[in-house]
Amino acid sequence: MPKIRPKLSVVLALAMTAVLLVAGPPAEAAPGTTAWRNGSFVVDTPNVVRRSDIVVQRANTAPTESLPLGNGALGAAVWAADGFTAQLNRTDTFPDRKSLGQLVIPGLSRLTSAADFTGKLDLYDGMLRQSGGGMTLTAFVRADTQQLVVDVTGADPNSTQTAQVKLWSGRSPQARASGGTAALAETWVDNNGAGASGRTFGSLAGLTAGGRNVTASTPNNLTGQVSFQPNTDGSFRVVVAAPTWTGGDSIATTNAVLNGAAQGEVRNAHLQWWHNYWSSAGLIKISSADGTGDYVENLRTIFLYASAAQSRGVLPGSQAGVADLFTFSQDKRDWYPSGYWFWNLRMQVAANLAAGLPGLNDPMFRLYKDNVDAIAAWTSGHMPGKQGLCVPETMRFNGNGTYNGGNDNASCDSTIPPMWNSLNVTTGAEVGLWVWEHYRMTDDRAFLEAHYPLIKGAAQFLLSHATTGADGKLHTRSNAHETQWDVTDPTTDVAAMQAFFPIAVKAAQLLNVDAALVNQLNAAIPKIQTLPRTDTATQQQLLTPADDANGNTMIGPSTQPAAQRRNSENIGLEAVWPFNLIGDNSALGRRTFTSRSYVNSHTWSYDSLHAARLGMAPEVRTALLAAIRQFQIYPSGMASFTAQPGSEPYIEQSGVLAIAVPEALAQDYDGLLRIAPAWPSDWTGEGTVAIGHKSKVHVQITAGTPTTVAIASGANQQLAVRNPWPGQSVTVLDGQTRATVVAPQTSATVTIPAQAGRSYLVEKTGSAIQPFQPLSGTPATVARRYDRATIGLPKATPGTGTISLRARANGKYVTAGTGTPLIADSATIGTAQQFEMADLGSGNVSLKAKANGLFVAADNAGAAPLLAKNAAVGSWETFQLIRNGDGTVSFRAQVNNNLVCAENAGAAALIANRAAIGPWESFDLITN
Fold this sequence. Notes:
Helices cover 21% and strands 29% of the residues. It is of the alpha+beta class.
């Protein structure tokens, strides 16, 4: 991602105590049971998926509380403002990804304001369901066509209802109405700035209703409306048609897309698609006594839902790690809406593959395949003297490296001064490696043939970019991604050549093409240098592999480790993933991880994934939970780049989680299948991971020990499996007949002569047959919480009103400044001295400053002064309210179990750092 982003290089100290709300007690497999029976891993798919349903126990009236619906090309962010509001977004409204508008249904206020309101996003059905005040709502973006459907029951049959689609100032739609159909349509041409395509794009939102006396109108030039009465049974339906639009008759197009949906059957095909989707997904159920495992499982399942809801269009629905299809802020978009960063797509690509859902990556691969000619032209003009394809890291949808309409921050451009991605030259190799990985996973030769031109072009470029030095080795001068600019031998270049050149050779030989290129690559491979080293202590020295024996080396960003760093990427760990050069047997890799400069630095932090590849189970758990606590602030399960409510939700944080979890359960990236290489010992894991050659591995693990290891082979292959129980004897059985396939052995690696369509059980020799119990679950019924993060919305807790605090240390009132710590410095009470105190139960409270509407936190896990800074309540924002015998109160911070003190007799900021109560730790609580 570009450096223009703010840097969040804070090292997060995880609280030892996490506040958790789960849907009942964590459900684990019965001891000594297996979900494997008669050649199949039996999963109660609906109920496992529904463990992760998003439950809103109060109306989600704020845009930031919106829930996502989508069919891969059309998406909606839905919240309860004005009864019902849904912002409609598409994947193809370039260059600015403009919204189609917002649907508002005011008559649903009776439902959303009811005391008995409840709602749930049913992930298995792809539907939002709400009830309250005697009404029900079911909303969904149809999986089979470009419609948003809202079905309602319980309305007053005699009432007049309205539904509107609205745009806003700055937009210039044509508003039309005819009969019972209204439409807002707008077109524009992509013709501004460098790199513009010249193509016409547009937006269309057409509206009708199913009820009585439906009449369409246009109250103003930004609004289309339908008015109607519910059916005599109190039901009605609102349908919005929202197809691709480049101009034409908006009413005729709307009616064609609606195709009778206002009255006809609209659910069957939608439900069939979602049910088929989930039946093919590799689900992983996680349980733990403290609920952390369950919460991680929920986020992964939500990612798989969101991925399907955003990844079925012509081009990817996510750019820069943003979940653009579920944005809620009108037309405001982060970063570069007409472009794509591959750094922020790759975790999503990997997560989809590991879940056995390769089709969700089609839009990403299409983005690069269809733009090969444009990329070649860009390379020729902006990387003079080079051959092949320099694939821009920030690539516009039409295949060039411009950035936001200019060339000053372009990618793959040696004609401008070094910038963020101007000399970032390995994106093509990365995409090429993912082409090969898709082929390895699917054995789809036609796919490889279609995408081989990108592999060829990327290899040609790196060959022409590297030069042979006096040492006989290949050298480059490029960016170390965005972190170092214009440096010698960046690790990204070295790792890309080490990983990609042999793959390019394999691809060409498999397809029997480009013998000359194969010869060039084979000649270059021995000349690729080793990964650069630096020292763990200062990360300033250039060391060599010979220094590894001293135990103080790590992989550096380049052969200029002291060069300025401009972004917070752990470049040395790129060799671990995605380049797959170093695994869990590497001390160098582990040192590179433990000495990394940037811990949990961004929503895209790969800490948990790198830990999984390195076999570091405790670090997997720590990194996953750190990212959740820091960034997952939306009840939809999505994240904020700034760790505060923003303009758009981000999917990249859950994307990293969604690949780290299966990597911790099973890995086969280098041809060796590892079972539970990095699974946290206090989590029970049960599920399926897709592996190479159309195969799957099913694993159940409890207390760090695998109990079920079953493999369904999709091809004839010699399948190498690392012994899941090191040093113990294992036997491989036929998964259906239990006939012996591989005789007992204690080898570190077991090789299975697998056949397509057959399954195999890897068991401890002599193990008793375990009783059968299918993998199942209980649907979520309440919102869940991990620390300050929530999935869904818990019921509002009754507050104790507006209060002020007077410090006994100096007799002054506590003030919450704007961006400054709390301090007892005021002689009077004003807004800055007022707090909303809410009862969190169990004697705990939160304090929301009226000065800025944010919760008071014991910042930096209590190591820093109290600060009103966060939008949600977690352990940092939770305080035990202690009522003292003299009528005063004290506060104990949950995060570090210390008492809040008016430090230095009130002359310094409040901080939680005391073990005993005295005058400095005592406050008068005044109810305002």
